[in-house]
Design goal:
single chain; 519 residues; mainly beta; seven-stranded mixed sheet; six-stranded antiparallel sheet; 39 strands; 7% helix; Carotenoid_Oase; metal-binding
Length: 519
């Protein structure tokens, strides 16, 4: 089934107790925040792409075996401008907004200038991220929106550019056990250079607790990586992190800055300025967290498009990292909204779970054309082309799998299990799975006419194994007389433990964040 034009969501801002079937574990205490597009038309105007829709946030709070739900639209500047104009007034990546024809010439000129040097949207519909003690709705622009994680009220607009020279930043930061956050952004033509900037947002220090200052005030640049091309930086959605290294993939899926600056004048959207260059290779940057410098060896692989890193870890002189990769950029095109069910003109993008192994210190005595990977549990290779340059080939562990999550308590360590959505020739997800990277076996959850979201693993506080916990996913149901629900699966057996039916509509969403209840 092809994704058809969705209807606008209806928010449910008041907390509502769900109807629970089964038994929610007593140890499961906290709130799962989910985020994704919810409004697709305003007045007589409609968005062209699903990713462009205005954000709606959902919260699912678990306490004493019960669950409470609420939802709210993200009421940022984009939302307010669109609602005030009763039309789409702020451009998104896949939808260019043009002034009402009745507006004055001055308004049209200002709109044109705003699109030549874009002032991006604050419609953070991709994920929920945490900096310091504060939670934010985010996409990938320089703007994030602080939110109240309890009421879902929209709060301050935060501009990365006030703290760091980044025009774009990922919606998938990493966190360590001390509460520090790590992220990467792109600095476009700053002082004549385009570069990628890895930065750290420290946990809130004691001296700043209770003060009205944003955690980004203490952000620190850890490393800068020069872009291979000044005016065509790579697009990326996530990155990898181990105890001692960052992994950044500079892929030949690029944003053409010149074309982007002229897109409005040419009557095309910004997404059309993304180009995939299959004839080019992919450069894998391995950065030492202790020195802030890249390792001497350069790692290359074939052209690919990666949105989601799964995990990375170190083993016997290697850095191993797992990603979900595509052979081209067709995935984005699959989410263009069409008021029809005929998908004959849309090519399906199939994902593959790929494992790469990077020898950190290549033995200079080894001759060219030799594989330097010595690990026995992977068929991934890194062949020496010449001194300081390795050509890497991944081991493909699985296909048709995306939106991966692990037990984040072992992020940066060797993992065995991965939870994700299983997709076929559609943007509609019908299954979620638990994948065993050792046996290569997959366990599934499936129910007729149901579409689950990204699964989130929550470890049991006293758990003794990697998969000791539960997996939570929100499920849209098209079955008669069945509302949407939160599904809770046993992390080990992948069998249903409980489900909680909500008294409101759920939507297909993107990503989320679980906030454990403080003891």
């Amino acid at each position: 089934m092809f994704a058809v034009f969705p209807k606008n969501a209806v928010e449910a801002p008041e907390p509502s107790k769900a109807e629970v079937k089964g038994c929610i574990p007593s140890w499961l205490q906290g709130t799962l925040l989910r985020n994704g597009p919810g409004i697709f038309s305003v007045g007589d105007t409609s968005y062209n792409h699903w990713f462009d829709g205005m954000a709606i946030m959902h919260s699912f709070t678990f306490k004493h075996g019960e669950m409470t739900h609420r939802s709210r639209f993200l009421r940022g500047d984009t939302y307010k401008a669109n609602m005030a104009a009763n039309r789409i007034a702020v451009s998104e990546m896949g939808t260019m907004a043009y002034p009402d024809p009745s507006k004055s010439v001055i308004v049209k000129v200002v709109t044109f200038l705003n699109h030549t040097v874009p002032d991006f949207t604050d419609n953070g519909a991709s994920n929920i991220i945490k900096y310091g003690n504060e939670y934010h709705a985010t996409s990938e622009t320089n703007y994030i929106r602080k939110i109240d994680p309890v009421t879902l009220d929209t709060q301050d607009k935060v501009d990365y550019l006030k703290y760091l020279p980044v025009n774009l930043a990922t919606s998938h930061p990493h966190y360590d056990k001390e509460g520090n956050a790590y992220n990467i952004g792109t600095s476009i033509a700053e002082k004549g250079k385009t570069k990628y900037i890895l930065f750290k947002v420290p946990a809130v220090p004691e001296k700043d607790k209770g003060k009205n200052c944003h955690a980004l005030k203490n952000a620190r640049v850890l490393c800068t990586v020069p872009c291979r091309s000044l005016l065509t930086p790579s697009y990326y959605h996530s990155f990898g992190m181990t105890d001692n290294y960052f992994i950044f993939i500079e892929q030949p899926f690029k944003l053409d800055i010149i074309r982007m600056a002229t897109a409005y004048m040419r009557g095309v959207n910004w997404a059309s300025c993304l180009k995939f260059c299959p004839e080019e290779n992919t450069l894998i940057h391995l950065i030492d967290r202790n020195t802030g410098k890249e390792v001497e060896t350069k790692y290359y692989t074939g052209a690919m498009v990666v949105y989601h890193h799964i995990n990375a870890f170190e083993d016997d002189g290697h850095v191993i990292f797992d990603v979900i990769a595509y052979s081209d950029n067709k995935l984005y095109d699959m989410f263009y909204l069409k008021k029809k069910t005929d998908a004959s003109d849309v090519s399906f993008a199939k994902s593959s779970y790929r494992r790469f192994a990077l020898p950190v210190q290549a033995d200079k005595s080894i001759p060219s054309a030799e594989n330097l990977v010595t690990l026995k549990y992977t068929t991934a290779t890194a062949v020496k082309e010449k001194e300081g340059k390795l050509i890497c080939q991944a081991e493909v562990l699985n296909e048709g799998f995306d939106l991966p999550r692990i037990n984040y308590d072992i992020n940066g360590k060797r993992h065995r299990f991965v939870y994700g959505t299983c997709v076929e020739e559609s943007t509609l997800k019908t299954k979620i799975g638990k994948f065993d990277t050792e046996t290569k076996e997959m366990m599934y959850w499936y129910e007729e006419n149901c579409s689950p979201s990204e699964p989130v693993f929550i470890p049991r506080p006293t758990g003794e194994s990697e998969d000791d916990g539960v997996v939570i996913t929100s499920v849209i149901s098209s079955n008669p007389d069945q509302s949407g629900f939160i599904l809770i699966l046993d992390g080990q057996t992948f069998k249903e433990v409980a489900r909680a039916y909500v008294n409101a509509e759920l939507q297909m969403d993107m990503h989320g964040y679980f906030i454990p209840q403080e003891c």
